[in-house]
Design a protein that fits this description.
The chain is α/β, with parallel strands linked by helices. It has helices at about 10-20, 40-45, 65-70, 80, 95-110, 135, 150-165, 170, 185-190, 205-215, 220-225, 235-250, 265-270, 270-280, 285-290, and strands spanning about 1-5, 25, 85-90, 120-125, 145, 255, 285, 305-310, 310-315, 320, 325-330. It contains 15 helices and eleven strands. About 35% of the residues are buried.
Length: about 325
């Protein structure tokens, strides 16, 4: 009888494995809050048996190959494997990306006829796994939440809304009762807050970064560590580094003093460049101070070309979020 646990973080998977809570522990770390989402075909193929999916577009890609071979599950499809398991649990991390992964999985689950009678048990982590002793996991921790059949419809609706070409459907989720899916309401809010604000042109994470730099005596890794300590961090290490690049290495910078970059694996692999980057002393430009104070709009002077879910944000088509009125502002 095989017990399967799927997690949204490799560290979580390691702790669960150490605690002996399952026979198979698979981590899915696909990032959905950053960059363009996979196509419809790629989304459908993600949980299918492996054929020609590029790396990063199969549900087993974040588990070491030697482990998959040891378990005899290499190249298996999720629902194919699930049909052979006696139990299944989904351990969801604290951030919005983990919530989106669950919505995606629930949506695929709903469309699958082979697992219609299977139970979906979710355990929502309330703190980073690094703060949990494996002994605590064995009690077990956290509380199990069995997803009822009618919750799948809400998950599919939310997943479709996030993938839509505008944030309107995601915003309209506020009109629904989101209590049935733990932390979904917080996820909806956190992601909307990352849209540029009407006054500064920056999302919530970027504004927090400028506030920290404004204190003085700040180095790049202070910003990285500070940002990831937030209660519900949206972006990870690499994504925050890219945001800092965007504030410092642009047409009209808000941050000065950043030596080297961009924040890439290539830079990390060069000890000299990484040392220069770490030793940078950051400060706000006069423009950055004006942006932080709401007197200037960062997007009026700098190009934006990025994805928010299925929405392509550009200067010409810029959806914004007004945090004071909690309202979505359409492009003009």
């Amino acid at each position: 009888m095989t017990r399967l646990i799927v997690t949204t973080d490799s560290s979580t998977a390691g702790a669960i494995q150490q605690a002996g809570l399952a026979d198979l522990v698979i981590a899915i770390e696909r990032r959905l809050v950053w960059g363009q989402l996979p196509s419809d075909a790629e989304l459908k193929a993600f949980f299918a048996p492996r054929t020609a999916q590029p790396h990063g577009l199969h549900w087993l890609d974040d588990t070491p190959l030697w482990r998959l071979e040891e378990w005899g599950v290499k190249d298996r499809g999720f629902f194919e494997l699930l049909a052979e398991c006696s139990s299944f649990e989904f351990w969801k991390g604290t951030g919005p990306n983990a919530q989106l992964l669950m919505l995606w999985l629930l949506d695929r689950w709903r469309s699958s006829t082979t697992t219609a009678n299977s139970n979906f048990v979710e355990r929502a982590l309330t703190l980073a796994i690094a703060g949990i002793d494996p002994g605590e996991l064995a009690r077990p921790y956290p509380f199990a939440n069995e997803i009822e059949p009618h919750y799948f419809k809400l998950a599919s609706r939310a997943w479709k809304a996030y993938r839509a070409p505008s944030p309107e459907s995601w915003y309209n989720l506020f009109k629904s009762n989101l209590v049935s899916l733990p932390q979904l309401d917080r996820c909806v809010s956190a992601l909307l807050e990352e849209l540029p604000s009407p006054d500064s042109g920056l999302g919530a994470t970027e504004r927090r970064m400028l506030k920290l730099v404004a204190r003085g005596g700040v180095q790049p890794f202070d910003v990285l560590k500070y940002t990831n300590r937030n209660e519900l961090p949206v972006y990870d290490y690499w994504e925050v580094g890219a945001l800092l690049d965007g504030l410092a290495q642009c047409e009209r910078p808000a941050v000065t003093g950043l030596d080297d970059g961009p924040f890439s694996l290539e830079m990390h692999n060069d000890s000299g460049r990484l040392h220069r980057y770490k030793q940078s002393r950051l400060s706000l430009t006069e423009f950055g101070k004006a942006v932080l104070g709401g007197d200037q709009n960062f997007r009026h002077y700098n190009q934006i070309d990025r994805w928010w879910g299925g929405t392509h944000l550009t200067n010409e088509r810029l959806w914004r979020w007004d945090g004071e009125t909690h309202s979505l502002v359409a492009p003009v």
